Amino acid sequence: MQITDNIKKIIKNLSWTERYDIFAFIVLISGIIYSPFLFTVGLVLMALRILFIGKIKDKIISFKENRKVMIFLLSIYILNIIGLLWTENISHGLFELNHKLPFLIIPLFALCACPLKKTATNIVFTVYVSLITIGILIGITHYLIDPYADNRVLIPTARNISFAFHICFAVSVMLITAYRNSHLRKLLLPLTLLFCSYLFVSSLISGIITLSILGFIGFVIVLKKKNIAYSIVTVLLAVILISCSAYWLYKQYNDFFTPKEELTIHTDEKTASGNDYMHVNDSSIENGYYVNKYICPEEVEQAWLNKTGVSLNDYPPSKQGIENYRYADIIYRYLNSKGLRKDAEGVNKLTQKDIENIQMGYSNYVYAERFSLRPRLYQTFYEFERYLRTGEVDDMSIIQRYFWSKNAINIVKQHFFFGCGTGDTRDCLIAPVIDRHPELCTTGCNPHNQIIYIMTAFGLLGLVFMLLYFLYLPVRLNLFTDKYFTAFFVIAICWSFAESSFESYEGMTFISSLMSFFCLSKHNQLDKNNTSCRKQDISAT
User: Fold this and answer.
1) What are the pLDDT digits (tens) for 352-411?
2) Dist. CA 441–CA 433, nearest whole Å
């Protein structure tokens, strides 16, 4: 009852427009986490606030007072308008302008809403953390109930990579707040532990790497403020942690790539049933065993049929998104991953759990491990091994990113200064690969790296705009002394390396929202301080 009364009192102290601003922002952040529809509704609410709520005269005055800040906050949208000048595909260029509307609407909305009261900021962040918590609880429940849950869709309506960066930002803000406010530690530290645990359970590698970078930066900052003895102990613990992680990675690498058997084969050797083995003369290796050695297809086919009643030419009812793969494409790799020969004897050694794994589409027994990073790591090893051996890029996310990035860099070399233009970027990315890899072109051949993408679209000019957007205002406004902003900045940069953050609505909204509110709030604060100083000088005179 007391909590309800406190909430009512807080809301009562807010004006009607402040309540509207909070509601619009909450709808928007709900959208970028869970629902494109809510994202659109949030943008519409913000546009209505810009156009119809509040006095136009006051907004014009505010824009003039903050014009230098606003020019930089709107620079990415301005860049896309400029890029139309050398665009041939104008219709797609206009589509891109519509797609980039968050870079126009959100800074203007922030201008109308700033300065935000601390109460409003607390409400928005509390809702933000609550939304992420709900998603994590849904994901963990899904993971615990379904032993074959796909980590990529633990939260059905959330995009994995963007959700990981939301977790990183929420963790950063909670830790900074807990460090400053001891009264909130009992609430925030368990939540932080839950959020970090989910990153590892769901194998969100981008989030884990980003959180590690943030942890290192936080570690350096805290270290400077402690005594020498504390610093030495902390450094030793950090060295131990890094050494153990490096050793674990080295051990997994060796387990996958170091042969556990000789490459040379005994061509006269036969199966236990007296049949001939088939050998492919390559060095394809997985879990330390050569995949294409000691294969007897007819024995595997018959043994699998006897054991399961299913033909190897059938398709598994897979939950892993590989419905186009037959049992025949899976079982040989699975047998190999366990160090078994691909014959009747090997099939008969499979346990019921192994059979279930194969039926669920797992081609390596490690992929079925739970509460472990090994499945994701081994998938990455397999992708690189296959690419280096065959040059194939199908169904391999990391290798496809490398392939697309290499393709985009070649285009940058051809259009170094001004890029392809706002509307022609997609066509330029697709053209070189459409004949060789048409199946890859459905996604637009996006390099999943914002630096590479913006140079593909706008060349060196685009890179300059991006650097100014991320660095000019923060440096000029001295924002890097703010730990909250520093955390946001690191996450925004990591997001830009993990995918084309200015192309996804989640990335655009996250970066544009926080950059706008941080910069405008700091600018207003500096103006207020300068005005106060001038008044004091006048009084003294």
Assistant:
1) 999 999 999 899 999 999 999 999 999 999 999 988 888 777 767 788 888 899 999 999
2) 8
- In sequence order, the β-bridge partners of residue 289 are 286
- Is residue 58 within 8 A of residue 120, CB to CB? The reply is no
What's the burial of 325, exposed, middle or buried (CB within 10 Å: 0-12/13-18/19+)? middle
Phi and psi (nearest 5°) for 295?
-115, 130
C-alpha of 489 from chain center: 15
Size of the chain, expressed as the number of residues it contains: 541
Task: Give the DSSP H/E element, type plus range, for residue 285.
Answer: strand 285-286
Task: Report how far apart, in Å, the C-alpha atoms of 190 and of each of 15, 175, 185, 319, 403 are.
Answer: 34, 11, 8, 32, 41
Distance of CA 373 to the CA centre of its chain: 16
Question: Amino acid identity of 339?
Answer: G
In contact, 102 and 509? CB cutoff 8 Å: yes
Q: How far apart are CA 288 and CA 153, in angstroms?
A: 30
State the Cα–Cα distance between residues 465 and 34, nearest whole angstrom.
Answer: 30
Contacts (Cβ under 8 Å, ≥6 apart) of 374: 252, 366
What DSSP character marks residue 270?
B
Reading the block at residue 10, the tokens are 């807080």
* 498: Cα within 13 Å, side-chain hemisphere: 21
pLDDT at 73 over 90: yes
Q: How far apart are CA 374 and CA 163, in angstroms?
A: 21
Burial call 236-275: b when 16+ CB within 10 Å, e when fewer: eeeeeeeeeeeeeeeebeeebeeeeeeeeeeeeeebeeee
How far is the C-alpha of 455 from the C-alpha of 463, rounded, in Å?
Answer: 6
pLDDT for 216-249, tens place per residue? 888 887 777 766 776 777 788 888 988 999 999 9
Rounded CA-CA distance 489/505 in Å is 18
